[in-house]
Amino acid sequence: MAERARPAGATDDVDAVTRAVLTASRLLVAVSARSLAAAEDRVTLPQFRMLVVLSTHGAVNLVTAADLLGVNPSTAMRMIDRLIAADLVSRGVNPANRRETVLQLTPDGQRIVEDVTARRRDEIAAIVARMIPGQREALVDALTAFAEAGGEPAAPGRGPDLYPLGWVDPTASSA
Amino acid sequence: MAERARPAGATDDVDAVTRAVLTASRLLVAVSARSLAAAEDRVTLPQFRMLVVLSTHGAVNLVTAADLLGVNPSTAMRMIDRLIAADLVSRGVNPANRRETVLQLTPDGQRIVEDVTARRRDEIAAIVARMIPGQREALVDALTAFAEAGGEPAAPGRGPDLYPLGWVDPTASSA
DNA sequence: CCTCATCGTTTGCATGATGCAAAATAGGTC
DNA sequence: GACCTATTTTGCATCATGCAAACGATGAGG
């Protein structure tokens, strides 16, 4: 819609950028999928997402974890059961409020998240390293402008950089 | 790994770009998630992925669809059953080879894919439209260089532009 | 023609993810 | 102590998933 409603000049402009964004998007998804692949024989994708949530938000109770994940508490409940059985998550009782549980990653669970995260960072860094320095600077500026236009907080070094991690791409398989 | 093994100068450079890429990545996932939301009360996410496959690859048989989706034929089988029940996909018999089926989108199925695709394009176009023209050009160049460094084919106008469409973001919900 | 290996589809079985609704449990109020 | 609320847990139903086996159609040799 947005592009169709304009004279040809501005249209082609926005359209070209959109196409470039979509292509880059495809690459990013492919990178993430590869990073994830390593962990997929230990946990399912939803389980990994739960690990990410616990990794970024530390000790939380069940409803909070469910909210952060955007799923029903009952779903989170059974997922946690399985993760505990796999020794990736621990469940304790909040001494201040005995009706709440306290969920936390075990060292094993922490390590899985770190491994995938590191792998993804490395893959992106490797791609970036193949660009010439001038392109790198330009990319930072361009992406920063894009993220700002899209209203995405620039995500400063907030810990171990966990972001859009844990997706599935429908078309990546067809590539 | 890749960054840790270098002196500080080059490291910070690559690191800054990596961070920018990850931020942009998060935005792109958020955009896709929003585009998908509209369709999620009609089909599940795996079902939508199947629709995308059928939309891009036209009439295919079951094993092909399963391969494109990266799932077991039995999984694809039952998914197709449900999509047929919802009148989003049709199943016929290949007259040339009666042991093969021919799967195709119904008009309804086609429309769902088109709606989500259009919504996503529009959202990205809207973001791009908020950037100043100079930034837009720079973004195209930068992303093109990035995609090339990552070995992603620049995806020319190959039809209705279907790409990384249909993911799930573990951290998007926590934003 | 009949038989057999093969390919594509389908079904059986088991596990995980998911949501809604209801039960059980713990905390706080009057 | 009765009552309301928040949290966890369980019951039930549906979808997604893979592996293995059964079924059905093709095509090649005999």
Automatic annotation (TrEMBL), chains A, B:
Cited InterPro entries: HTH_MarR-typ, MarR/SlyA-like, Tscrpt_reg_MarR-type_CS, WH-like_DNA-bd_sf, WH_DNA-bd_sf
Protein name: MarR family transcriptional regulator
Organism name: Streptomyces morookaense
Organism placement in taxonomy: Bacteria, Bacillati, Actinomycetota, Actinomycetes, Kitasatosporales
Pfam families, per database record: MarR
GO molecular function: DNA binding; DNA-binding transcription factor activity
The UniProt record lists the keyword RNA-binding: no
PANTHER family in alphabetical order: TRANSCRIPTIONAL REGULATOR, MARR FAMILY, TRANSCRIPTIONAL REGULATORY PROTEIN-RELATED
Domain HTH marR-type: 14-148
Gene Ontology biological process: response to stress
Keyword tags: DNA-binding, Transcription, Transcription regulation
SMART domains linked: HTH_MARR
Gene3D superfamilies for this protein: Winged helix-like DNA-binding domain superfamily/Winged helix DNA-binding domain
